[in-house]
């Protein structure tokens, strides 16, 4: 008998979970509090990034964070606020940001990213979808020798991990990007990365899921969850109630507040990121990260996206002009002929990326609830890890041997 599954959250994790669950014969219902046309799954840089194998919770981010945290124009901004859960999360993040934990997580992060890339390519080859996908690699561009040395140190570790990495001088970068007018000293190039246009894929996936019988309930906020004998037996929204054999928690930054209804704590904080889209020609052909500014550049389907910043200010979608301006200024500093006009800046959007204390997502069943599977906390790798997470969720729920070991992603792990 097929399982009935409720997926709470219709972002990239929810849609991919629904896709792989449906492939295994499950009946799937997706509940989302929004209209499912905005947020982190739509405004991200669209990277599939095996190159990002260093955990966000690293000693470097602690040292840089202290310098950046009170500057609203910096790549990392932490809004001072009295919030006991946030303060506990900060302490857990600091405890996790050590060399030993970073070292242990490198292979874990690399492997799940490679699985995500393989599954995107499988989806593309299936001919069920027609989404934009290019595997052109990623340029980590730098202006200073200090930044270049730091990027190459990571690149050398990438080579040790079996990734294709090259250190390019200025002339080699300009040969790859002859029309982008880049002002850089060099770049570290990862040929293992790919990129996409997020809203393109999300639209395709929603249409496909609807066509194969997945039910969507949009603009419905989960108000309560009833549990008995260690299992969820009813999910209530503002409009109705649902019951199912299994529940997937993939509500991103909103997951902790929903988990509280179960009496469970999930240490996740919202990290706001911004994007500016430019539809005028830019001459940019390759995805790039501007090393010193921490800004991501993606040539998408019909436009160029400039994305960046990490803002820890709680659950809100307030757009701070200084942060938008910082992205625009960084872009114009590296790309000499690109000009981001007031209309582009005023149309900037943001999304909330769910961040765990150790930089690894939560994927798995918490011991306190036997029919709940958690799939959140992917931080800046959410897009990259969507299909991999969805496949793991389906394997968990259908009691298959999982493609990857789940211990590093356990929702029960301590910090």
- Overall pLDDT: 95
Would you count the extended β strands for me? 21
Count of discrete alpha- or pi-helical segments spanning 4 or more residues: 12
Helix-residue proportion: 25-40%
Strand content: 15-25%
How would you summarize the topology of this molecule?
Elements: E1 4-8, H1 12-23, E2 27-31, H2 40-43, E3 47-48, H3 59-68, E4 76-78, H4 84-96, H5 99-125, E5 133-134, E6 138-142, H6 145-160, E7 165-169, H7 170-176, E8 186-190, E9 194-196, H8 198-211, E10 215-217, E11 222-228, E12 231-237, E13 241-242, E14 246-249, H9 255-259, E15 269-278, E16 288-290, E17 295-299, E18 304-312, H10 321-334, H11 342-346, E19 349-355, E20 362-364, E21 372-376, H12 382-397
Parallel strand pairs: 1-2, 1-14, 2-10, 4-18, 6-16, 14-21
Antiparallel strand pairs: 3-9, 5-9, 6-8, 7-8, 11-12, 12-13, 15-18, 15-19, 16-17, 17-18, 20-21
Report what the structure shows.
The chain has 415 residues and is an alpha/beta fold. It contains twelve helices and 21 strands. Strands 4, 6, 7, 8, 15, 16, 17, 18 and 19 form a nine-stranded mixed beta sheet that branches. A six-stranded mixed beta sheet has the order 10-2-1-14-21-20, covered by helices on one side. Strands 3-9-5 form a three-stranded antiparallel beta sheet. Strand 20 and strand 21 form a beta hairpin.
